[in-house]
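General statements about sequence and structure are easier to judge against a single worked case. For one protein, we set the task of working out the structure tokens from the amino acid sequence alone. This step matters because it turns folding into a mapping between discrete strings. The amino acid sequence and the backbone structure tokens for this protein are reproduced below.
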Amino acid sequence: MAGSQADDDFVQYVSARLHRLHRAAYLMCGEAHQADDLVQSTLVSLYTQWRQARSAANLDGYVHRILARRFIDERRSAWSRVLLPGRLPDVVEPDRDAYVDRVAIVGALRTLPAGQRAVIVLRYYSDLSVEETARALGCSTGNVKSQCSRGLATLRKALSPDTADQPPTFRDREEIGIER
């Protein structure tokens, strides 16, 4: 009976957060099928550790840590270097301007190193604090801050070439084009 309750708890948790996990994975990967694979491997890992994971103080942070580590590990493998250049997402948005902006943002995110990309997505899309992001990635808060600063500076250059010489300033998620 206890196993059945644990499985029900797992299904309930995943059902409530699946869309958000997929969006975070998509922003990290930039490709829907890779995001599906990343979420699937994250959930398999979570399921195998569910009994201890569900007692974590911050379960969402725990899951984001698995997601980010899986993403970074996959980027390190030789298989991840096989890219289809210029491939657009499978889903076409009805609002052409929003679609073009999203494609530009995802393209700019893909130019970031995996660590910077994970920090940007966790901080500005998943709304994790610096401390939560550091715990999720298993690094220091200083590392999160520096990776975030470098990543945002790179995104600004990629998305606004005319402002490349300006010093970096804080911008929230709407300014870098990540919507909830």
In short: Residues 167-180 have pLDDT under 50 and may be disordered. The CA atoms of residues 156 and 162 lie 9 Å apart. The chain has one domain: 2-163. The two ends are 38 Å apart (CA to CA).
